[in-house]
Amino acid sequence: MKQQQESDVPQADSGLSLAFITLRLWLAARALVTGLEKFSGSKVSDAAVTIDGEVNSYGLTASDSEKVYGLEYYQGVPEALYSKFVSEPLIPEFALSLYDKVLGPALLILGVTLLLGVFTRLSLFLMGLLYTSLTLGLILIKQDAGVAWLGIHVLMVAVALMNVKHNRLALIKKW
Question: Which residues contact 32 (CB under 8 A, 6 or more apart)?
Fold first, then answer.
């Protein structure tokens, strides 16, 4: 019976390692894509309308909008939420302005460090703090659905932190 228990341990450890890697990848992807979306916008172009394959002679144009990414499109806090936060007395405007500038890059940096396994514990902890700060803001403006979603994110970070000892694929394992 003792031999059977000892042989089960490596399988359990590998399963926990795979579970941790899956959770780490999900959290990294979530942060990276969310951070990238802070740099997205739309570009409108006027294209000449074609009739029977020929450019029309009336000068008619159609506006097409396409999604693009660039530094000039950066917006950390969406404009609709920003105006709600400005009217919230518990959030000083200088802090909101700073948060708006830092949010996208913070998500990208945490996503990359988590994806690569660089300071995984610290990255997870900072990610948990970031999601907690987002949660506090949404509580203040009474966005309960967003609060619930972010609560799930914080819970996932907490589970990852509890299982970080199973972190096998990492560039820097310390911290």
Answer: 107, 108, 111, 112, 115
9: Cβ–Cβ under 8 A, 6 or more apart, which residues? Answer: none
Q: What is the pLDDT of residues 110-121, one digit of tens each?
A: 999 999 998 999
Q: Which two tokens stand for residue 58?
A: 């009336």
Q: Same domain for 148 and 163?
A: yes
CA–CA dist 31, 112 (Å, integer): 8
For the chain, what is the domain count? Answer: 2
| Cβ atoms of 175 and 121 closer than 8 Å | yes
What domain range is 112 assigned to?
16-39+76-175
Write the pLDDT tens digit of every residue in 66-106. 888 999 999 999 888 998 899 888 989 999 999 999 999 99
